Amino acid sequence: MARLFGFSIEDTEPLSPSAVSPVPPNNEDGTDHYLSSGFFGSYVDIEGVYRTEFDLIKRYREMALHPECDSAIEDIVNEAIVSDTNDTPVEIELSNLNASDGIKKKIRQEFKYILSLLDFDKKSHEIYRNWYVDGRLYYHKIIDLKNPHEGIQELRYIDPMKMRYVRQQKKTDKDRYRLANINADNPMDFEFPQIEEYFIYNPKMTYPASNPSSLGGTAGIKMTRDSVTYCTSGLVDRNKGSTLSYLHKAIKSLNQLRMIEDSLVIYRLSRAPERRIFYIDVGNLPKVKAEQYLRDVMMRYRNKLVYDASTGEIRDDKKFMAMLEDFWLPRREGGRGTEISTLPGGQNLGEITDIEYFKKKLYRSLNVPPSRMDGEGGFNLGRSSEILRDEVKFSKFVARLRKRFSYMFHDMLKTQLILKNIITPEDWDIMQEHIQYDFLYDNHFAELKDAELLNERLNMVQIAEPYVGKYFSQDYLRRKILRQTDEEILEQDKIMKKEIEDGIIPDPNAPVDPMTGMPLDQTAQMDLGQPVMEPNLDAQGATTQASGKIAEMPKGGEI
User: Fold this and answer.
1) Residue 524: CB partners within 8 Å, gap ≥ 6?
2) How far is CA 114 from the centre of its chain?
3) Per-residue model confidence as pLDDT tens digits over 452-462
């Protein structure tokens, strides 16, 4: 194959040759078709929905321009990406990463550098909206090929209509990947497929419907897999092998809403005005003369003056008949004479229940609560029991979208850290599961729910505290009522011990002064002197001092 544009990061510890599988590697993103078979992501849809992903992206972008659909998209994007004057929309979370503080500091610095390349603080709303509408996102990672250790120099957005992701089976000298060559005795004789991945960039914005390999150099520029950040929505049409957007299931709902709105407008224009019906008495005239007489009467009383707003002229258009004009009907002899009656307009023209139904259906298809549709009700931050279930589902949906969108940061951060020799590809395979991204949260429902749960648990602990040591243990309260995990228990014990040593909080096991309620100082030495002993009287009435000597009674005066 021809040389690809870009760079590749090779794994120094590839998979063992004996670890084989008849299933080729895949990313579960719908790109399970191969270039070698002549099938390149195109699908002839008999129903006429879409033929290629090119047409699909165009349809998604047209849907996003519809007012109701745009309003729902804005609700989702505003909930997922929260812009704040003080905080960045997303931060990296490394508390679960088992690495040194120096490595964590470098990872945080490189992540901030990637955000600055994306200008994410200012363009986060547009980036997320493009990903949500198109269902995929491409960024070209530009590096200095002479000095790759400097890392990524620039990140350039690529229109998904100009880029295609291709997975091609590697060809070998002896193509033994055939069913007839399988040796049932030794399955290892079966040659397992190897897949190579690359992108095709075509600046002309045309979808290659045929086999690009047969088009030579005119098919576009082939770019390596590692030089492009590729982030999809995660929705896949397995039957057609296409990556879908979250707008896909709203196509039918939006078309139905458009049709019902158009039909309502047409019905109201045609049925709203009252029209006159002229019954013209033609007597015993023949059919031809009766029709001629009817036309003469019609032209005599008809006056159709049209004002042309572009030229300011008034012209007579009697030769054209519109759908809102009067009716002229002939009437034979024997009936009533010439008569003019009125045809009433349509009834219940203010009924829009069907439009409201399809609007709610559109919002449900986009996973947006229908309660957000009108926007008439005010925002009430009450108890979590007052929160609608649709809002809880919506918050989980937004969290799932954030998780999927963060793969873009994951791929860019991986390239940056490996190019700058901060970590190795093997280290990244171990560390990537523990690197999380914390988006700025504006959904107060989750915060309110956590606060209420903590309040209820603390009340339960207060009620159960008198029974500690009799029916419950301290460990039971922390695990069952406060729901603390083993890691949280060890972490809190360590923090409390340190704060007691630093004097931030008092020691709960220290003796307490019953008068003041303050802990007694064990280090202070107070000299209270010898205790005063009460004098004891012996049998003879003499007093005994504390030293043991008998004290003489003083002699009093005589009375």
Assistant:
1) none
2) 21
3) 888 889 999 99
Residue 173 has pLDDT above 70, yes or no: no
User: What sign results for the dihedral spanned by CA atoms 516, 520, 525, 530?
Assistant: positive
Residues 258, 39: contact at Cβ < 8 Å?
no
Q: What is the model's pLDDT at position 26?
A: 59
Taking the alpha carbons at both ends of the chain, their separation in whole angstroms is: 139
Residue 123 and residue 137 in contact, taking contact as beta carbons nearer than 8 Å: no
The pTM of this model reads: 0.67
Helix/strand/coil (H/E/C) assignment for every residue in 184-214: CCCHHHCCCCCEEEEEEECCCCCCCCCCHHH
Residue ranges in 420-504 assigned as alpha helix (H): 425-431, 444-464, 474-476, 486-501
Residue with tokens 């007579």, as numbered in its chain: 316
- pLDDT score of 167 more than 60: yes
Burial class of 405 by CB neighbour count within 10 A (0 to 12, 13 to 18, 19+): buried
From CA 10, how far away is CA 423, in angstroms rounded?
14
Residue 336 buriedness (CB in 10 A; 0-12 / 13-18 / 19+): exposed
Which residues does 396 contact at the CB level (< 8 Å), separation at least 6? none
Q: Who's near 201: CB < 8 A, 6+ residues apart? A: 158, 162, 163, 220, 221, 222, 223
Residue with tokens 């030794």, as numbered in its chain: 186
Residue with tokens 């019953």: 514
Query: How many residues are listed for the chain in this entry?
Result: 559
| Distance separating alpha carbons of residues 155 and 151, to the nearest angstrom | 11
